[in-house]
Specification:
8 strands, 10 helices, DNA polymerase, domain 1, alpha/beta, globular, single chain
Length: 299
């Protein structure tokens, strides 16, 4: 009998990963993962391509990582099996993606003022790939511009040693070229996903940029749970074991499922699909209420 291995948090080049959606599926298969959620930032633009290349017996879970903010700090929500055309959610996603482009342009402008040879044209090429020729109209196809694209351009221009160094020097929170952007309130985000028939897990709760403690406040998680949050991503590569155990306990206390995921970004994270996984019973518990979309399986 084939063992079920579930990874519920991965990224492709449609957002800030480095691999095409079809290649993400190939890497998952090679890693022994046979249930995979593609969760690009604020977009489902890679799902169709990924679905075309599913090997027999492989299940793709349509999803995204939704940008949220609480008191000026980032909170990320892994959302699954929602209706991407639901009016409220679709409108919010358009607003988020548009503001990502505006933010990226302003970051590039600030980098230029600082003397770095980073251009919008190069950032666009990195982010959109072949779609870059379409200019900013590529936003309409759901392709997302993220800070990792800018970071890679900074490295190319000689402004940093690597992507992490680019964040630390230039574009991380509080750094010279950092620019805030629009994001949803986490409770409202949960409500919007549930209204679209989806379910969601709080992503990497111990690692939220900008929060003084680095962790999402538990009072906020409680409010998200009351709004319909389904799970907590306790098992994440960035979590120490003590942190993971703490968040498993938070999930248990709130009656939520526990998810585990790689948060793979391709080359940027060492192609680590399957580094953390979700137990089948937790996956079933999380996804049972979903009505907006269904997992895609090739028999």
């Amino acid at each position: 009998m084939t063992r079920t291995r579930i990874d519920l948090h991965t990224h492709s080049a449609v957002s800030d990963g480095t691999d095409a959606p079809s290649d993400v599926i190939g890497h998952a298969r090679a890693a022994g993962v046979n249930v995979l959620a593609l969760t690009d930032h604020d977009t489902v633009a890679g799902i169709a391509e990924a679905a075309k290349v599913l090997p027999p017996g492989f299940t793709l879970v349509p999803g995204m990582e939704l940008s949220c903010a609480h008191q000026g700090s980032s909170v990320h929500l892994a959302a699954y099996l929602f209706d991407a055309d639901a009016p409220e959610l679709a409108a919010e996603l358009r607003r988020i993606r548009d503001d990502r482009v505006n933010r990226a342009r302003e970051m590039v402008r600030r980098l230029g003022e600082a003397g770095l040879g980073v251009t919008w044209e190069r950032v666009r090429e990195i982010a959109f790939g072949d779609a870059g020729a379409a200019g900013d109209g590529a936003r309409e196809a759901g392709v997302v511009v993220g800070r990792p694209h800018i970071a890679r351009a900074i490295v190319e221009a000689g402004g940093a040693a690597d992507v992490q160094d680019a964040f630390d020097r230039w574009i991380g929170s509080g750094r010279p070229a950092h620019v805030a952007r629009y994001a949803l309130d986490p409770v409202r985000a949960v409500e919007a996903v549930r209204a679209a028939g989806g379910v969601c897990s709080l992503a990497h709760p111990a690692r939220s940029e900008g929060l003084l403690t680095g962790a999402v406040p538990e009072e906020l998680v409680e409010r998200m749970a009351r709004a319909g949050l389904g799970a907590v991503e306790a098992d994440h590569p960035s979590h120490e074991e003590a942190e993971a155990e703490h968040w498993r306990g938070v999930a248990r206390d709130l009656g939520l499922a526990v998810t585990g995921s790689s948060d793979d970004h391709g080359e940027l994270t060492g192609r680590r699909i399957g580094a953390r996984t979700t137990a089948p019973e937790e996956f079933e518990r999380l996804t049972a209420p979903a009505t907006g979309a269904a997992p895609i399986t090739r028999g």
